[in-house]
Amino acid sequence: MKYFIFIISLAFISCAEDRIPADLLVKNANIYTVNVNFDKAEAFVVKEGRILEIGTTEELEEKYITTEVFDVDGKTLVPGLIDGHAHLYNLGLSLQQADLAGTKSYKEVLETVVAFQQENKASYIVGRGWDQNDWEVKEYPTKKELDSLFPDTPVALERVDGHAFITNSKALALAGITKKTKMSGGEVILVNGEPSGILIDTPMELIYKTIPALSREQKIKALKDAEKICLELGLTTINDAGLNRDIIELIDSLQQSGEMSIKVYAMISNTKSNRDYYFDKGIIKTERLTVRSFKVYADGALGSRGAAMINSYSDKENHFGAFITPKDSLYYYAQRIAVSGFQMNTHAIGDAANDIVSEAYRKALVGTKNLRWKVEHAQVLAATGLRYFGRDMIPSVQPTHATSDMYWAEDRIGEERIERAYVYKTLLNKAKLIVLGTDFPVEKVNPMYTFYAAVARKDLNNYPEDGYRRKEALSRLETLKGMTIWPAFSNFEENDKGSIVTRKFADFTILDRDIMTIPEDSIPKVKVLATYINGKKVFGRD
């Protein structure tokens, strides 16, 4: 009997020795691979951060011996989620400022700022997140109350979309803003001939220049705080829509030292110094960072009436919004960026902005191949606005914008133009792909909310019952692609991420429910159980 056991043991050792060594076996999973056929799978093996083989649990256990085994216990696994348009650094910064998100009145804004200052004793008070469209009185306030509360401390409170400020007199004086201040692409709003404290778009730059610079430690904290939130919500790559060189280089250094795990597709802010540096340096690609695009602003936001419209706003006579980047400059930048080989990603909200951007792209892309330029937001299209969308003019949209804006958007632009707004299914049908994101911190970070808004066209209160203009909803398959393989393609990273396929990086997200089959109203409640990047667990729920 002992001899028999010894023989069996030798056989077992021999079989073990015959198995191929690898790092990680993921087994017993409900895997949506998002490959070409949208196949499902049960298990895969990871080696050196990449997927080595996909198969059944039984066959992979027989074939490989791994350092680590992750038994998913039947839970759903999807490719690592990609936020196609967000602001990672700004999210972190917002955590160091007065949080005004969700405030329901200007009085509540003021109360929040007072409480923030009592705790922080800031030399310059900065806040973000208010939205006058959420208030009972939907008009812009004036600086009167801020002046009374903070006569000697500058205050600058940024609107939720980042396209307007409420400021006090101290902040205006520091920035040199008076009733005579005029800047193309924005407005200093006057009341009784004097600055009211409200700044729209380009004059905000004068305020930014006077806000005290952050230390390196504060910048690092902002990035790490934001990363933690994203990893806990299953995001593995963030397309950061507008970064300066110093923050891009800081992200790279943190990734290289192992202090940051999340991957970043960095859109370079379109300043002269950034253009001069990156045109000379060229495209940058590391394992976790890609730098190959410029973020350009065509216009402002619809909520602050800064979006550039062909005809006047429906709720403000003879007001057309404004181009932040003049039309001639858009054509110029498009030509320069095309020659450089970089991608151009342009913020375009209003129909006038979308019309000019599409024409600038068309002209600049003649004779080029595979530049994959994006229109960020593509929010209100001109009557002929669909004609150029495709694989070199990719729509990049944020589904929760539709469900946040639906309460007031039609008042802004009228019933005719609203039919050309937030048209995600229409854009997908024309372009054959669509990139989905959140624009956080403008919206909430949670990608499950993105999924729900895209599929159900409802807000988190399940309103409206039948969905907001439901004909523009995406299917669950389309939505998952829009959060994985399509943004990967738009980032020139489809060979490295976006699907569970051999030789790609093992970036994946484990969900507590099957997002593809559960009742629609359960989608926002889905929780992330674990997040993996390059085969390493970067978040796990106990």
Give an overview of the whole structure.
This protein is α/β, with parallel strands linked by helices and about 550 residues long. Among the domains are: about 125-210, Diaminopimelate Epimerase, Chain A, domain 1 (Roll), CATH 3.10.310; about 300-475, Metal-dependent hydrolases (TIM Barrel), CATH 3.20.20. It contains 18 helices and 25 strands. Strands 8, 15, 16, 17, 18, 19, 20, 21 and 22 form a nine-stranded mixed sheet that branches. A six-stranded mixed sheet has the order 3-2-7-23-24-25, with no helix packed on it. It has a six-stranded mixed sheet with strand order 9-10-11-12-14-13. Strand 10, helix 5 (about 145-150) and strand 11 (about 155-160) form a beta-alpha-beta unit. Helix 3 packs across helix 8. The longest helix is centred in the N-terminal third of the chain and has 17 residues, at about 1-20.
CATH superfamily of the domain at 298-474: Metal-dependent hydrolases
Strand content: 15-25%
Summed up, the helix count is: 18
CATH architecture of the domain at 298-474: Alpha-Beta Barrel
Task: Tell me the major beta sheet.
Answer: 9 strands, mixed
The shape, in one word, is globular
Question: What is the terminal separation in angstroms?
Answer: 44 Å
CATH class of the domain at 298-474: Alpha Beta
How would you classify the helix and strand content by structural class? Answer: alpha/beta
Unreliable segments (pLDDT under 50, ≥5 consecutive)?
1-14
CATH topology of the domain at 298-474: TIM Barrel
Please give the radius of gyration in angstroms: 25 Å
Mean pLDDT: 95
Number of strands: 25
Report the helical percentage: 25-40%
